[in-house]
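Q: Mind making up any chain with structure tokens?
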Amino acid sequence: MPNVPNYAREMDAVLRRLDGRRPRLLLHACCGPCSSAVLEQLCQHFEITILYYNPNIWPDAEYHRREQELERFVAQAHPLGVTVVEDRYDPREFYEAARGLEDEPERGRRCTACYRLRMRRAAQYAAQHGFDWFTTTLSISPHKDAARINQIGQELAAEYGVPHLPSDFKKKNGYLRSLQLSAEYGLYRQDYCGCIFSARQSQAERDARAGED
């Protein structure tokens, strides 16, 4: 079995090389809770712009609720220096990316396609607007595969010419810290990843547990 790189250690090495400089980082974010501990960790090292691009989120009311919670957290916790950009919301982009993968289980190939869709847009935006780095909050979730996320990031960095900041934000109690910050700021925490397929699986699991009681 091949050794999996230690992405948290790789990120620490990048941060040390910054040597006090604060380059511009484009941070793709899926929601406020996942952004919370990531911002706490990275704000001291980068000038951060958050890109909220998530055409996978269903329904549209959920999409807007997550974006509003992200805006609220940034305004309360980081009133200076962090900007949020809400990008286009066209769910057809996600359904096209997921075509033929609708019946894949969570964490399967459909999720990989979703990671790539959102991270590609982040890499494009970073290249178009002169950012020094790009990355995503996705690796903070214990349900997300950091190896896949970082591999995609490296491929997109080569394609668009903007370095990808390696990460495994769940490490060093990052996920636990996101729970603590969510409680501190009263952030809405969703009970499914975002798309209609994950919502259906989450509901089926809840129904199964209820049937066992």
Observations:
- The domain at 7-212 is CATH 3.40.50.620 (Rossmann fold).
- The two ends are 40 Å apart (CA to CA).
- The longest strand covers residues 47-52.
- The beta strands are 24-28, 47-52, 82-86, 133-136.
